[in-house]
Write a structure and sequence with these properties.
Elements: H1 7-34, H2 41-54, H3 56-66
Length: 68
């Protein structure tokens, strides 16, 4: 069975990425407001990005949304 490329699926994935990114920025800003010495800023961002890039469930979700 051949799967077709879906523009609306791609748009959906982009909007999901934007909303998840906004949520992560909000959580990060809470960490900055809560702590006076926030030295884990770079570690938080890098670990979050690596989690999403290396998680196979994320890629499976993206492929299922884009190719229907």
């Amino acid at each position: 069975m051949k799967r077709k490329f879906s523009i609306m699926g791609l748009v959906s994935v982009v909007f999901c990425a934007i909303s998840i990114g906004s949520f992560l920025i909000a959580v990060e800003s809470l960490f900055v407001l809560a702590g006076r010495d926030y030295s884990g800023h770079n570690a938080y961002i890098i670990s979050t990005i690596l989690f999403f890039i290396t998680n196979p469930k994320v890629w499976e979700f993206v492929m299922n949304k884009i190719f229907k």
